[in-house]
Design a protein that fits this description.
By secondary structure, the chain is of the alpha+beta class. It has one domain (2-143). The protein is 25% helix and 28% strand. The chain has 3 helices and 7 strands, in the order ββαβαββββα. It has helices spanning 28-36, 59-70, 128-143; strands at residues 2-12, 18-24, 40-42, 85-87, 94-98, 108-115, 122-126. The strands form 2 sheets. The protein has a 4-stranded antiparallel β-sheet, with no helix packed on it. Strand 1 and strand 2 form a beta hairpin. The longest helix has 16 residues, at 128-143.
Length: 150
Amino acid sequence: MINLQGIRLIQKGLNQKEYTIYLTTATIEEIHKWFKSGHISADIWKRGKLEGYQRKPDDKRAKTIAEYLEGKLKIEETILPSSIILNIREKGCTEFNAFKESKDKPTTELGTVSISDEALPLYEVDGQHRVRGLVAIYEELKENGLHPYD
């Protein structure tokens, strides 16, 4: 089970069907743990496979991100503000608990989202190289006895 604080957004499509999106944050330690345990996965596109939408991960691109985060690319500020978009494919495997009870049905709420183990893996829609770069730099820092937040 994965538990995160975040925002639940409910949007209506052109067909008036409701779509739920969760905006959350995760630490580098959480991303590392999820990736290493197989809870984050790239769904590689192959000719004839309908559900795949990612190209094969490129180790060189992930290494460049890790080097950027470590400062090897000599960039003054090393932040990674870009989002990573993960897809939950299994229906009914998330639970949201709003921090504040609402009388009407709001389209935006703050609360906690729980993702059950049945929903895993989370599929990378965008950010597969950022995930791998974060994992690589986390492991390098830990190997050298440093904490990623030092």
